[in-house]
Design goal:
Rossmann fold, alpha/beta, single chain, 7-stranded mixed sheet, about 675 residues
């Protein structure tokens, strides 16, 4: 078994597992951090970004396109359509992928890069919420980019990256970055996805059985178990033990795995999500009291549902019942509507509301009471009429490089009464704000992420008792955001192996196939007559043909040849007809090889120059110099190496079989 690491970001994983001749892709996360190196895409031309000074190379021989690199407050930015970091392509041929298992909607944004234009013809599996909410994420991303097209594409900067100012001179392999796919590519890619439910066992070409297990992280999120005969592999990605709106994590199904691959731990391990939620509400109230408005850059699903619920309660408690909340996204209406019809994927408390009946999420009543107003864009019909300040605005994109958030940062950035609150840990907030500097708006960083922290992950690992643990190398050292906290790592497991990996590596996993399942033909099963060889132990011989098809092993009855059928007719046995396998003379060898008897038989057969070499306590080597032959005898096997002499090998085999017990 091999694991190919196609991603260097554990929060956006993409790995390929090679096992039993199959190539299984685990997630296809898209790293979006690369967009921070580009100038924002405003909905209308921005004087601020147009007036930024151009950066010019000191080497007169190198000529960049006019305005290709812009400078702002000591940082350089590419003036072009943003580019993204897809999974590593050179490590594996995507056309060889047999199946893709998606754990949650945040880990499927690179799917069009993998399935379209690569020759991919496999199957993609995901739960229904993962597929539908993943579609919202992809549609929003594509619409944001296409809403503000760039006239030119910057290319030359990648050729002189080492000469550029920071942070561009430190980016990793920008030549591998790619522009975003089209909406047509998204639709074709998602058409390949087959929806599945929790605990549904899926057969993969007869070789493996994969099952999605609730992970507790977000709507429809799942861990996966991969079972083959007696071996079990668990893939844990984006899990949570906290009590939020999704269905709780199912730990029982993950226990006692031979191999556990763990990724997708929290990107903000140094903070508590409940404390951050409290700090967010406090800062919102302070800003509103001072007459300012609040901008919260967000994704179209996920934590934003909890923010609606928490903030609406805080606003009512603090007497701000008339303060409106605006949710602006190309998929805002679809996201709000869809979240309220997913009862089976929710926590028990949310499910119970459905049977009252009541909406599981409060944002439905907030919309009815006009406390939460949603629009596709700021130029949508009715927005200018409804919009008033002070207010709280939720909109994308959290990177602040595209989407309606760009407009609000420019609109409110120079006013210290307003506040921008970052809740998504995907993007460092200082880098996100860099091209807008100088700014007077108040900035608050409250990363809210419910995925496992290191303490919870270590506790979970102890309870699961895996044979081997496989983790990204990042998890063996404190994160860059808190390098002094040595407890923010995965702890060693006594007497267990931990294998770490990083992007671009191919590692071998120590999983050996112990046994395989064989299906016995019903006719043969009826003919079995067990015999007791010792108290409590019965055995029976079985003679048949082993058929292997689609990785399924079937033991079938022997079919007689024409000659054997003719011989059977001549003999005409009396009594009831017997199965063909009982008419054929068959010997069954068993037991330990008698070395002394073998030496005697070989001598009687003319092998006079026989040499005996004693290896370990359980291994003996017999050398026949004149025949250029070696016979290696150990406790578990006997090997004959005779230089291509087939007749000699068969002769030695027959002599060996005479030296073991048989019946």
């Amino acid at each position: 078994m091999k694991l190919y690491a196609l991603s260097g970001d554990p929060a956006k994983p993409c790995y390929v597992l090679s096992y039993k001749g199959l190539m299984i892709m685990l997630d296809c996360g898209l790293s979006i951090n690369s967009v921070l190196n580009f100038l924002p895409l405003p909905l209308v031309q921005s004087p601020k970004f147009q007036c930024l000074p151009n950066w010019n190379c000191r080497d007169s021989d190198i000529q960049l396109e006019d305005g290709e690199i812009k400078e702002c407050c000591g940082c350089a930015f590419v003036n072009s359509a943003p580019e993204f970091v897809p999974p590593l392509e050179k490590l594996i041929d995507f056309s060889e992928i047999d199946v893709i298992l998606i754990s949650n909607y945040t880990n499927m944004l690179a799917l069009p890069y993998i399935t379209e234009g690569t020759g991919f013809c496999g199957t993609v599996y995901a739960t229904e919420p993962t597929l539908q909410i993943g579609r919202f994420f992809l549609e929003e991303l594509v619409e944001y980019i296409e809403a503000s097209p760039k006239e030119t594409t910057a290319r030359m900067w990648k050729e002189i990256q080492h000469q550029l100012p920071g942070p561009l001179n430190d980016v990793f392999k920008p030549k591998n970055w790619r522009h975003l796919f089209s909406m047509d590519a998204v639709n074709r890619s998602l058409a390949r996805v087959r929806m599945t439910g929790y605990d549904q066992k899926l057969d993969i070409f007869g070789a493996l059985q994969v099952t999605p297990i609730s992970s507790g992280f977000c709507l429809g999120s799942s861990n996966w178990t991969i079972v083959s005969g007696q071996e079990k592999i668990s893939y844990i990605s984006g899990s949570s033990t906290l009590t939020t709106h999704p269905r709780p994590i199912n730990q029982t199904a993950l226990k006692y795995s031979d191999v556990v691959i763990m990724t997708g731990l929290t990107q903000a391990p140094h903070v508590n999500p409940d404390a951050m939620l409290g700090e967010l509400c406090m800062n919102v109230m302070m800003t509103l009291r001072n007459g300012g408005s609040v901008l919260i850059p967000c994704y179209p699903s996920g934590v934003v549902y909890d923010l609606f619920e928490c903030l609406s309660v805080s606003l009512d408690n603090q007497g701000f019942t008339q303060i409106p909340m605006f949710f602006i996204s190309p998929v805002a209406d679809s996201s709000l509507a869809y979240s309220n019809i997913l009862a089976e994927w929710l926590s028990t408390s949310k499910q119970n509301k459905v049977y009252i009946p009541d909406e599981p999420f409060p944002h439905a009543s907030l919309v009815k009471n006009a406390k939460l107003k949603h629009f596709k864009h700021i130029d949508s019909e009715g927005f200018s009429t409804e919009f008033r300040q002070p207010c709280v605005v939720f909109c994308g994109h959290p990177s602040l490089r595209f989407g309606d958030a760009v407009h609000f940062v420019e609109l409110w950035g120079s006013n210290p009464l307003h506040t921008i609150i970052f809740t998504e840990p995907d993007f460092p907030h200082i880098q996100a704000l860099a091209p807008y500097q100088p700014l007077a708006i108040k900035t608050v960083y409250c990363p809210i992420e419910t995925s496992l922290n290191f303490q919870q992950a270590n506790k979970l690992i102890k309870e699961l008792k895996p044979g081997v643990l496989v983790i990204p190398e990042n998890y063996t050292q404190p994160p860059a955001i808190a390098p002094q906290k040595l407890d923010l790592v995965i702890d060693p497991i006594p007497d267990k192996m931990i294998i770490k990996f990083k992007r671009g590596e191919v590692i071998k996993l120590p999983l050996k196939r112990k046994r395989g399942r064989v299906y016995l033909n019903p006719k043969m099963a009826k003919a079995i007559v067990p015999q007791e060889v010792q108290p409590g132990v019965t055995v029976s011989t079985v003679t048949g043909v082993l058929q292997v098809k689609d990785n399924i092993h079937d033991l079938l009855p022997l079919e007689p040849t024409k000659e054997e059928l003719a011989e059977e007719q001549k003999s005409k046995p009396t009594g009831p007809p017997q199965p063909f396998s009982q008419l054929r003379t068959v010997r069954y060898e068993w037991g330990t090889l008698d070395i002394n008897l073998l030496l005697k038989k070989l001598a009687q057969d003319g092998f006079s120059d026989l040499k005996v070499e004693q290896g370990s306590a359980e291994e003996v080597t017999l050398v026949l110099p004149s025949e250029d032959t070696i016979i290696k005898v150990s406790e578990k096997s006997t090997e004959i190496v005779c230089g291509g002499k087939q007749s000699l090998r068969l002769k030695l085999r027959d002599l060996l079989l005479q030296c073991v017990q048989s019946f």
